From TrEMBL:
This is Peptidoglycan D,D-transpeptidase FtsI. It is a single-pass membrane protein. It comes from the Bacteria. The keyword Lyase does not apply. Pathway: Cell wall biogenesis; peptidoglycan biosynthesis. PANTHER family: PEPTIDOGLYCAN D,D-TRANSPEPTIDASE, PEPTIDOGLYCAN D,D-TRANSPEPTIDASE FTSI. Belongs to the transpeptidase family. FtsI subfamily. It comes from Thalassomonas haliotis. The gene is ftsI. It catalyses: Preferential cleavage: (Ac)2-L-Lys-D-Ala-|-D-Ala. Also transpeptidation of peptidyl-alanyl moieties that are N-acyl substituents of D-alanine. Residues 257-551 form the Penicillin-binding protein transpeptidase domain. It is an enzyme of class 3 (hydrolase). Residues 65-216 form the Penicillin-binding protein dimerisation domain. Its EC number is 3.4.16.4. The lineage of its organism: Bacteria, Pseudomonadati, Pseudomonadota, Gammaproteobacteria, Alteromonadales.
Length: 597
């Protein structure tokens, strides 16, 4: 009995041991299978996660940033340059871990130096406490950066960046343009040549060990340095033109104005200014319309500045010769029920007299004496329906209809500069073409390595004839445009601005001219938009600006005078007129030119 009980107890003990063994074994097998499945999942199904975690701990990239290239004028003067600055940024997670927001005096000091509200600043930091990067202020001055560094706020750091600086300020703002906060060009040359000026930063990727030592260099990308850009602009002439234009816009209470100066032999733009302008170093509170380069974007009816082209067209076709006389009596005519007239009956006029007196009747008869297609082709050949070739953003091609049907009245108005709209830059290219003997070249805002061949669109002999006529215009009609010591030719334009349904009450006064006529070098176009005073004719408001800009430019470029102080020039009626006399800036004795509406 006792033996039986003992054997039964031993059997139960063996059974219990076996059961426990199998349970432990099963648990071990399950754990092993779980680990095996997990390892297989990590290494086969989702290995990238481990690699990513490892790379975060050991892989580093060292960037080698490059500053934006400089923009300089043709003489090497800097127009745009990048300067080193610091950017303030914060690590919200580190700030929270160090309880740095309790440093109220330090945060108040930080907000004060940055010109920010301290409550708004701290709310931005605490809004997402797990975030690792927040901009506090972009591109602060070195003095501010040193002050912020001394505050020693945990989680607030500085990083090196560069900021664009424009030494010429508002003088060259419309040509040079601006960049945004990330140094990307958004206006002017900065935008057109953004890729060239930006360059590409280099970088080195390497792996480090736990002690921060480099153990493997994975790749090296060399930096592509940015290129500096040399413009055709002569900053001396640019500053002179801007000063004179700004003074004229203020004096005549005009809405705006533009001046373009070109080298007639190369097509290079030596100056292009607009007023009002803006400060590219501080765009705060700058109206959007001020960023517009009006010399290429805004178009207007050029008025009488187109009359030399009408004369040239008649000469080119053979409908008139240098000695042709046009009878404009009785001083008016009707075309299709519409009236064309001069202010008075001027009788018989030579081609020179037509330009001197700015006769609408004379140019109308010349325009109607040639085939319509020939007249229109000449206007198109001058580039009045295409951009000038500068490549600047926003340039307008102008407005000139290519429709097949034109009435005689429409052709008449076209002959004196109505029925088309062009920019000051397009007008400057036309006068450059006229000055260089009839070769049309694209305008360039970048300094040219070689002179473009261009396209001959006018006869050299006839352009010479017209230049002589334009000299008579200045000497006999527009004394305000004279430049002492130089032979100057040019033409005024006064137009009423078009509005919806017709014409309004605002004027545009223009003067386009060339000098020195013995060997043309420069063309200058001055446009004054919507003068608000009693003076509005081109000869009164634009010609004096032309005279001072042309005189200064000729002297700055050291171009020799080509006329004596007093030169006798015969007019077409056998009289003698005095040329190249000194004109004071305030001289307003020039004969008023009649507006051509």
């Amino acid at each position: 009995m006792i033996d039986s009980v003992k054997r039964k107890s031993e059997q139960n003990k063996v059974t219990a041991i076996a059961w426990r063994f199998y349970v432990v074994l099963a648990v071990i097998v399950l754990i092993y299978l779980g680990l095996l499945a997990r390892a297989a999942y990590i290494q086969v199904v989702e290995p990238d996660m481990l690699k990513k975690q490892g790379d975060l701990r050991s892989l580093r990239t060292l960037a080698n940033t490059v500053q934006r290239g400089s923009i300089i004028d043709r003489n090497g003067d800097q127009l745009a340059v990048s300067v080193p600055v610091e950017t303030v940024w914060a690590d919200p997670k580190m700030i929270m871990q160090n309880n740095a927001l309790t440093m109220t005096e330090h945060w108040q000091a930080l907000a004060d130096v940055l010109g920010q509200d301290v409550d708004r600043l701290t709310r931005r930091i605490s809004k997402n406490p797990k975030k690792r990067f927040v901009y506090v202020e972009r591109k602060v001055s070195p003095a501010m950066a040193n002050y912020i560094k001394e505050l020693k706020i945990p989680g607030v750091f500085l990083r090196k960046e560069s900021k664009r600086f424009y030494p010429a300020g508002e003088i060259s703002a419309h040509v040079v343009g601006v960049t945004d906060v990330d140094d990307k060009g958004i206006e002017g040359i900065e935008r057109v040549y953004d890729e060239l000026l930006t360059g590409v930063g280099g970088q080195k990727r390497f792996r480090k060990d736990a002690k921060g030592r480099k153990i493997e260099i994975l790749s090296v990308e060399e930096a592509r340095p940015p290129q500096d850009l040399t413009l055709s602009i002569d900053q001396r002439i640019q500053a002179l033109a801007y000063k004179e234009l700004k003074g004229a816009v203020a004096a005549f209470k005009a809405r705006s104005g533009s001046v373009v100066v070109t080298n007639v032999n190369t097509g290079e733009i030596l100056a292009m200014v607009n007023n009002p302008s803006y400060n590219p170093n501080n765009l705060a509170n700058t109206a959007t319309h001020r960023l517009r380069n009006r010399a290429i974007t805004d178009v207007f009816e050029p008025g009488s500045t187109m009359k030399p082209l009408t004369v040239l067209t008649a000469l080119e076709f053979g409908a008139a010769g240098p000695d042709t006389v046009i009878d404009t009596s009785p001083g008016w005519m009707r075309l299709g029920g519409r009236r064309v007239s001069d202010p008075r009956n001027r009788g018989k006029l030579s081609l020179t007299d037509i330009l001197v007196t700015s006769s609408n009747m004379g140019t109308t008869k010349l325009a109607l004496s040639v085939p319509k297609e020939f007249l229109l082709d000449k206007f198109f050949e001058m580039g009045f329906a295409e951009d000038t070739g500068t490549g600047l953003i926003g340039e307008s091609p102008g407005m000139l209809s290519d429709r097949s049907r034109w009435s005689k009245f429409e052709l008449a108005t076209l002959s004196w500069g109505h029925g088309l709209a062009i920019s000051p830059a397009q007008l400057a290219r036309f006068y450059s073409t006229l000055a260089n003997g009839g070769i049309k070249r694209p305008l360039s805002i970048v300094k040219a390595d070689k002179i473009p061949e261009g396209e001959r669109v006018l006869s050299k002999s006839y352009t010479g004839e017209v230049l002589d006529m334009l000299e008579h215009v200045v000497n006999e009609k527009v004394s305000n445009a004279k430049v002492d010591g130089y032979r100057v030719g040019g033409k005024t334009g006064t137009t009423i601005k078009a509005v919806a349904g017709g014409y309004g009450n605002d004027y545009v006064g223009t003067f386009a001219g060339i000098a020195p006529l013995s060997r043309p070098e420069l063309a200058v176009v001055v446009m004054i938009n919507e003068p608000g005073g009693d003076l509005y004719h081109g000869g009164e408001i634009a010609a004096p600006v032309f005279s001072r800009v042309m005189k200064g430019a000729l002297q700055l470029l050291n171009i020799a005078p080509d006329a004596s102080r007093s030169v006798a020039l015969p007019n077409n009626k056998g009289q003698q007129v005095q040329g190249a006399a000194i004109q004071a800036a305030a001289d307003s004795t020039g004969v008023k030119e009649k507006a051509n509406a």
